[in-house]
Amino acid sequence: MVRPRVDFVGHVGGDDFVFLLRSEDWCLRLTALMEELGASLASFHSSEHREAGGLDGIDRDGSHRRFPLLSVSVAAVEVDGAQPVSAEHVAERLRHTKHLAKAQPGCACLLVAGDRLIDLLSRVETPARTADSAAPLAVASS
Q1: Residue-wise pLDDT tens for the chain (142 aa)?
Q2: Secondary structure, 3-state, 73-101
Q3: Which of 30, 42, 49, 98 is spaced 20 to 30 A from 130 at the CA atom?
């Protein structure tokens, strides 16, 4: 889904990755990737677990708990190359957006573009508040 001469994919650690997408059609390719992943993740679970909406197991602390089905959460920030921006500013916006994406059930792909927060899977758009604002980023779920 990436174009090697234009885009970059890096492994941050664990199940975290970073994508730097500069291709003109990056948004379409990211959405297609999310749809493909969302459709294939169900095959990792038994029909029993899919029907139950999760599975029971033991967490890292040795406690019994219910685990949700596998999902993918993506936080994206559109950076205008014509405007100066610090890495810290982008990282802070990504942190807030990732928190919102992980709070949604199932797969999520949220994009901060200027003053808008866009759910790329449902195409719901809401005003976004920056990390510099008094309130954190927010999105209405559909």
Answers
A1: 888 888 888 998 888 888 888 888 888 889 999 989 988 998 999 999 999 999 999 999 999 999 999 999 999 998 887 888 888 988 899 999 999 999 998 899 999 988 889 999 988 778 765 434 333 232 322 2
A2: EEEEECCCCCCCCCHHHHHHHHHHHHHHH
A3: 30
